[in-house]
Amino acid sequence: MGLILLATDLDDTLVGDDNSTQVFNGLVSRMRDQQKIKLVYITGRSPESYDQLKNERSLLEPDALVTAVGTEIFLDGKTKYDNWPMVAEWNSELIRHSLLNVPSLEEQPKTEQRQFKISYYLRNNQSSYELVKKILRHHPVDVVYSMGLYLDIVPRGVNKGSALRLLADRWHIEAEDIIACGDSANDISMLKRNKAIIVGNAKEELLRWALQAGNENIFLAKGFYAQGIIEGLAYYGV
Ligand SMILES: [Mg+2]
């Protein structure tokens, strides 16, 4: 393997058990000293809420940071990459307005509403989810429903996976040298084209996807949180 791009989700993937996170930090720091790895965090959080988590959990400084489920990219973890996403049409007011009458759909706090992400809470409600998709079927958007609670609307094709691909292209890293780690449905876009590690505590929605996808580039770890990532890295010979 050449240079590895390790991309990981944060909540309930890298973060969840502080001891394992610290073991992960030690392992990855050593590999970075030898310039063997690029570390990227890919999270649904806003940059502010990421900063808070990073301090609370003593996370390593990443080589790049992707926030708001793929709609924002920070190079070197700090510098916003302005040419992302390339979107011709995005009218968040219109989208919000069209969804006003969807039952049980509740807007998330202002801090989670981003330039290219509209976020709601929706508690275990498949019929409202279907209704949202139906209402927005002529809009160039994707609707992502995770953990039976978080419903995000983003420009079509903009997700954790496409943000990761942009970084890989910039760094000239091939898909076979990309390892992505996750625990829930909004991680699927980055898990599916790369070597995937699914942590042992993953949500059923993701396990269901993994069973259907059934390819050898999906590793189902036994260990929870960062322990699962460490297990997966060993599986892939890193
Ligand atoms: Mg997660």
Description:
With 238 residues, the protein is of the alpha/beta class. The protein has two domains: 157 residues, Rossmann fold, CATH 3.40.50.1000; 64 residues, Hypothetical Protein Ta0175, Chain: A, domain 2 (Alpha-Beta Complex). Helix content is 34%, strand content 21%. The chain is built from eight helices and twelve strands. An eight-stranded mixed beta sheet has the order 5-4-3-2-1-10-11-12, with helices on both faces. A four-stranded antiparallel beta sheet has the order 6-7-9-8, covered by helices on one side. A hairpin with a 4-residue loop joins strand 3 and strand 4. The longest helix is centred in the N-terminal third of the chain and has 16 residues. The radius of gyration is 17 Å and the shape is globular. It starts with a strand and ends with a helix. Magnesium ion (MG) binds next to loops.
Largest sheet: spatial strand order: 5-4-3-2-1-10-11-12
* Domain module count: 2
The N- to C-terminal Cα distance equals 8 Å
Mean pLDDT: 95
CATH superfamily of the largest domain: HAD superfamily/HAD-like
Query: Cα-atom Rg, whole angstroms?
Result: 17 Å
| Counted beta strands | 12
Unreliable stretches covering 5 or more consecutive residues? none
N-to-C series of helices and strands: EHEHEEEHEEHEEHEHEHEH
Q: What is the C-level CATH assignment of the largest domain?
A: Alpha Beta
Instruction: Give the number of helices.
Output: 8
Q: What is the beta-strand fraction? A: 15-25%
Largest sheet: 8 strands, mixed
Q: Helicity, in percent?
A: 25-40%
CATH topology name of the largest domain:
Rossmann fold
Based on helices, strands and strand pairing, what is the structural class?
alpha/beta
Second CATH tier, the architecture of the largest domain: 3-Layer(aba) Sandwich
